[in-house]
Design goal:
Blueprint: E1 4-5, E2 34-44, E3 52-62, E4 68-75, E5 80-85, E6 92-93, E7 99-100, E8 114-118, E9 129-134, E10 140-148, H1 156-159, E11 162-172, E12 178-188, E13 193-200, E14 207-214, E15 219-221, E16 225-229, E17 235-240, E18 247-254, E19 267-275, E20 286-294, E21 299-304, H2 305-309, E22 315-324, E23 327-332, E24 339-345, E25 351-359, E26 362-365, E27 368-372, E28 383-390, E29 396-402, E30 407-410, H3 412-416, E31 426-430, E32 435-440, E33 447-451, E34 457-461, E35 474-480, E36 486-491, E37 497-506, E38 512-518, H4 519-524, E39 534-542, E40 548-554, E41 559-564, E42 572-575, H5 576-580, E43 585-593, E44 599-605, E45 610-615, E46 624-627, H6 628-632, E47 643-647, E48 652-658, E49 665-670, E50 680-683, H7 684-687, E51 698-704, E52 709-715, E53 721-727, E54 735-738, H8 739-742, E55 744-745
Parallel strand pairs: 1-14, 30-55
Antiparallel strand pairs: 2-3, 2-10, 3-4, 4-5, 6-7, 8-9, 9-10, 11-12, 11-18, 12-13, 13-14, 14-15, 15-16, 16-17, 17-18, 19-20, 19-27, 20-21, 21-22, 22-23, 23-24, 24-25, 25-26, 25-27, 28-29, 29-30, 31-32, 32-33, 33-34, 35-36, 36-37, 37-38, 39-40, 40-41, 41-42, 43-44, 44-45, 45-46, 47-48, 48-49, ...
């Protein structure tokens, strides 16, 4: 079995420096810390001697202020040898997908004549990137493949095992020959083995024996190889750091996407060729930087990247592009003999790696990485539904259905580089910009995750936006007022009620800013009002007139609300159980409001019956109670998970629960068609014919989609996220989907 290595390297990343870049503005994004890793190869020629080669590794961290710290290793006789810290101390991100390393010297401890780099941080929308440095006068060059590192919690069987497609640049230490090799590698963590197969070119070895796999996906082999897993788990960068066998190499490997359509590849890519003597123009290793454009009409163009950055559009070569057997093929125009480049396509089409070059009848491997410039990509289709869930490892994810009628899933911690939640994730679509957001408590504070316009995620610690932001550590809930203001409520460690709310301002990036208040300390205690001894979760809800309410039950099962209404300058506390004479409740509660001002707070009594404490203008302005289970002769339910929601097309009220005996999903419901008839219920497990893995077992969430669909989500016993849905009437034909199986990873 694999020996787990838990030593985490806290390192840094970087950005290139070149005088020609000075006129460009830095890319403005939320600043967050991110770990990264890179594999590189530097070469240097002295006089008429053959070049010397230096394979190297870097690991580091880019801090919130974009400073970079970390470690640097050179290849050694038996493996990597530490050579101190990074040779750069900050990065500068640019709007066109490139980045700088201001004032940096290189691996060869010399000043660059020219540098360039392609951004690589997943948090910024770039799954993989590269760095290029040229010392000029044929004295030397260096090139790196770079990724943002995966967070803790990698399961080798799901994230590493299986087949990967690779491109490498290899050096024969005995004669200095360099060559590109393309092929597949297969990882089997159960038997500690990596198997290499060459598709174009001959692989240096056919087998590597795994020595260790860290919880972040770093593989170290007995052959002196190091493999780093990317944040989205779709890329590996690797290097052979042992020189005693006269063989070293660096490379990159990608997963095979399920499907790639031509429209997935439209746009601009930043391309770094890493060419061995088998294909370079001068017969020795050569690094080149290019801009590649794949146009919707099927044309491609390649430019010198430096000239392209300066606004020049002098085409170096052009031709036609197509997808063939999952590979991108570029057919050069204007040649007397056949000339084709082939690239392997990474997940989503954002990454390309070199496969081969065909010139006439000569086929050779070609090395390189092309990373899409996502800074100007169109936004993803608008979200219809966004919900929180967890993956098979318990990591928080967001599932989103979009207007293209497809489902997507995002590991928001990995994609944003943010802290891991310590509490339940809350997800909503902000009506002001139609983008998904998520919030959770964490060891670092209340964290807000935001989807950017290009589909990537970032995060902010909300307390850091304020001079003295109060801690919110548990029982997080949220509401969105009729005017579109998002409010977050929860408790601190002392049980005090905390509120964060959008204050109407934005920062320089257009992000909504928040204010905060300790409602218990600032509103209730000065007037000798008790803060309820809330236990379990809270439910926030807003009224059609803009009232703010936080409901929960105390240790004796009584419902309490902390509330405010427009026109009031103070917050209030009410014991609704005492007012409505509701018997004690336990477990989860849920709350929802109808447009006709009806308020329902629903929980489970000691008999397992579903009980509503409700208010409406038609009730004479008094709180009342109703027992849905007894009035419908329905099943008793579990108090562990409830979800209430309103459906606008049918003016329907709904509460989803689990049958206390069978575990079936029961939907108690009423709509205008049942005026005078009262509430009823539907067994959704039966309505969907759900069996086995199709049965929702916990974590219920009911909601109406902006497409008019009625939905109940939950997880099965195997932790897959399921959706029960119907369009139109609740009495219609319910469908079931396993979102964990069908969702595209973003």
């Amino acid at each position: 079995m694999i020996r787990q290595v838990h030593a985490r390297q806290e390192m840094a990343e970087a950005a290139p420096a070149h005088e020609l870049f000075a006129t460009l503005e830095p890319r403005t994004l939320f600043s967050t810390a991110a770990d990264f890793a890179g594999v590189g190869l530097a070469w240097q020629r002295t006089g008429s001697n053959a070049p010397t080669f230096t394979p190297y590794l870097i690991e580091g961290t880019v801090a919130p202020n974009d400073s970079a710290t970390g470690s640097f290793w050179r290849a050694g006789t038996t493996g990597r040898v530490s050579d101190g810290g990074l040779y750069f101390n900050s990065i500068r991100r640019l709007n066109d997908g490139r980045y700088e390393r201001p004032g940096a010297s290189g691996v060869l401890r010399d000043s660059f004549e020219e540098t360039n780099g392609s951004q690589f941080l997943t948090r910024d929308g770039y799954p993989v990137g590269w760095w290029f440095g040229d010392y000029g006068s044929n004295r030397g060059q260096e090139a790196e493949y770079l990724i943002q590192r995966h967070a803790e919690g990698v399961n080798p069987e799901t994230k590493l095992d299986g087949s990967w497609r690779f491109s490498m640049l290899a050096i024969n230490g005995s004669n200095g020959e360099t060559s590109n090799i393309s092929g597949t590698l297969s990882i089997d963590s159960e038997i500690d083995r990596i198997t290499w197969t060459g598709n174009v070119g001959t692989v240096p070895r056919t087998r590597s024996d795994i020595d260790s796999i860290s919880t972040r996906g770093l593989i170290v082999t007995d052959q002196g190889e190091y493999f780093y897993l990317s944040a989205d788990a779709n890329t590996l960068v690797f290097a052979d750091m042992r020189t005693s066998d006269n063989l070293v190499y660096i490379g990159i490997a990608i997963r095979t996407p399920a499907e790639i359509r031509t429209e997935n590849l439209h746009g601009n890519y930043l391309l770094a060729w890493t060419l061995g003597g088998n294909v370079s123009s001068n017969g020795s290793v050569q690094y080149l930087q290019r801009a590649l454009t794949l146009e919707p009409d099927g044309d491609y163009k390649i430019y010198d990247l430096d000239e392209y950055d300066d606004g020049k559009r002098n085409v170096l070569e052009r031709g036609f592009w197509r997808i063939d057997s999952g590979n991108l093929v570029l057919e050069r125009r204007g040649t007397s003999t056949a000339f084709y480049y082939r690239f392997r396509i990474g997940t989503g089409g954002d990454t390309l790696i070199g496969l081969s070059i065909l010139s006439g009848t000569s086929l050779t491997a070609i090395g390189g990485v092309a990373s899409r410039d996502t800074s100007n990509l169109p936004p993803p289709p608008a979200p219809v539904i966004s919900i929180p869930s967890t993956d098979a490892l318990g990591r928080p994810v967001v599932f989103t259905s979009r207007t293209d009628q497809a489902w997507y899933v995002a590991d928001i911690v990995a994609k944003s580089g943010g802290p891991t939640p310590t509490g339940e994730l809350k997800v909503w679509i902000d009506p002001k910009n139609s983008r998904p957001y998520a919030a959770a408590t964490s060891a670092s504070g209340l964290v807000l995750y935001s989807e950017l316009s290009n589909g990537q995620w970032t995060y902010r610690l909300l307390a850091n936006d304020l001079t003295n932001g109060p801690a919110l550590t548990r029982s997080l809930t949220y509401l969105i007022t009729p005017s579109g203001q998002v409010n977050l409520f929860g408790l601190n460690d002392q049980g005090q009620v905390i509120r964060y709310w959008q204050n109407g301002n934005t920062n320089s990036s257009g992000a909504y800013l928040y204010s905060a208040s300790n409602l218990s300390a600032n509103q209730l205690e000065p007037r000798s009002l008790p803060t309820p001894a809330y236990t379990g979760g809270l439910e926030a809800y807003t009224t059609p007139w803009g009232g703010l309410n936080v409901a929960g039950i105390d240790t004796t099962g009584r419902i309490w609300t902390v509330w405010w209404a427009p026109g009031q300058t103070r917050w209030f506390v009410s014991n609704l159980s005492a007012i409505a004479k509701t018997a004690p409740l336990s477990g989860d509660i849920t709350a929802f409001v109808s447009p006709w001002n009806g308020i329902n707070i629903v929980g489970v009594n000691s008999l397992g019956q579903l009980v509503s404490t409700w208010w409406s203008p038609g009730s004479g302005g008094t709180w009342k109670r109703a027992n849905f289970t007894s009035s419908t002769l329905g099943p008793t339910v579990s108090n562990a998970t409830l979800s209430g929601f309103y459906i606008s097309p049918t003016q329907g009220l709904n509460v989803a629960a689990l049958d206390a005996t069978t575990g079936d999903v029961i939907l108690y419901w009423w709509n205008v068609s049942r005026t005078g008839l009262g509430w009823t219920y539907t067994n959704l497990t039966s309505a969907t014919n759900a069996t086995g893995a199709g049965r929702i077992a916990d974590s219920l969430l009911g909601l109406e989609g902006s497409d008019g669909s009625v939905n109940v989500f939950g997880r099965n016993a195997g932790a897959s996220t399921l959706r029960y849905s119907v369009s139109g009437s609740i009495t219609g034909s319910w469908q079931i989907q396993n979102l964990s199986s069908i969702a595209t990873v973003e």
